[in-house]
Amino acid sequence: MMILRNRKISNTSPFVVFALSTFFIFSCIVVLLSFLSHLENQRSTDKRVRVKSAKGYVTLVELNEQVYKKYGYEIVRSVLPIPKVRMIEEPSCENVFRGWSRVAKQPQPNEPPKRIPEHVRRDFLLNGYTFVQYVYSNDKNSPNGQRPTRWDELSEIINYGPRKVADMGYGNDGMSVHHAMNEYRLDGMRGLVVGSMIPWVEIFALQHGAKHVLTVEYNQLNIQHEFNDRIASIHPNELVNEWRKYADSFDFAVSFSSIEHSGIGRYGDPVDPIGDFREMLKIKCLLKPGGLLFFGVPLDQKMLSLRSLIILFGLLAVALACAPHMPQRQVQHGYCKFYVDGTSDTTTSSSSRKKRDSSSSDSSGSGESDSGSGGTTKYNRSKKKKNTKCYEYEDGTKDEGATLKEGVTYTVTVTKTSS
Prior knowledge:
The chain is α/β, with parallel strands linked by helices. It has one domain (86-351, 366-416): Vaccinia Virus protein VP39 (Rossmann fold). The protein has twelve helices and 15 strands. It has helices at 2-48, 60-68, 93-104, 121-124, 154-157, 162-169, 175-183, 200-207, 236-241, 243-246, 275-286, 315-322; strands at 50-53, 56-59, 73-77, 84-87, 132-134, 190-194, 212-216, 231-234, 250-256, 287-299, 337-339, 368-370, 390-392, 398-400, 409-416. Strands 8-7-6-9-10-15-11 form a seven-stranded mixed sheet. A two-stranded antiparallel sheet has the order 1-2. A two-stranded antiparallel sheet has the order 3-4.
């Protein structure tokens, strides 16, 4: 009986194999055709969609060749307002910290420059494609500069409600950190805060379950003694010198309105056209695999990244700065979420974002403007409607996030590094 059964199976095996092979080949053909169609649609989008720049409206193809590739990146997904890009060749952490140290050891100006130094101007302006607005601030050695405050009041602040904590820093915009941490809990985690003059971000982290926070800051922080086991600080130079001690050791990192200042010398940091890009690479080296980055920057379509003075974080540069945390990997839906204006859930998938072609030309000339003549100038925050969930550009283009039409607004992007 066993012999007959085996013989029957043997007689039908060629048919089963043929059917399975046919199905497999057909599936491969379908996948291949789908992939080729996707590539064609991508190329079409790259050529059709135009992005506003200091050189007028330009295609993503032009930006890819003239901006991203020149700085070691390339566009892998054409989504607006910020295309997804990847690093063509990711540097080792050894090279990342060595490069920062090399720049830091170069002679630096006694005061932050009031204009972009001519010899690095092209790199600061990302090959001339980014807008720049000058708003000068000197918090390095000016008696009128910003100084750390309220670090000795932590036992009082820890009992504040979310709104009161946010008001210590950026008000409504600061609530985005609270809502982001509400969704991505920090229970028992150890984290890193990059740049902090007032401890509102640290308090939010502790209130959302963090076990310990290390703040990277150029200024000395007078941390209340009772919190020494929960909050500590370190000078950026010390962190770089001892980076191996901290590599892959943090569960999360937070930067809110900090990275965009890197490289402009405002707080005593070295003047470096790609200072903010280096900071993002450093953060990636310090996060554990699968670690979270809460990344908050001011967005305004006409502003640039890398500025002395402040030159606000622009859409071209956001993609470059985020790239180290969004490498060549397939990610799940909802990988990147934006929290704005006190809303607890805004956003979302790039596929749902609206794209709109525009053939207009930019009449802004060089793309430079001045705002203020000196001293510390506050950000011009827009008056946002509650629960607003759309970018509104001057040309009518919209995208999920926050209203940008009236001025500068902050968003928080939550990014999970590769496991």
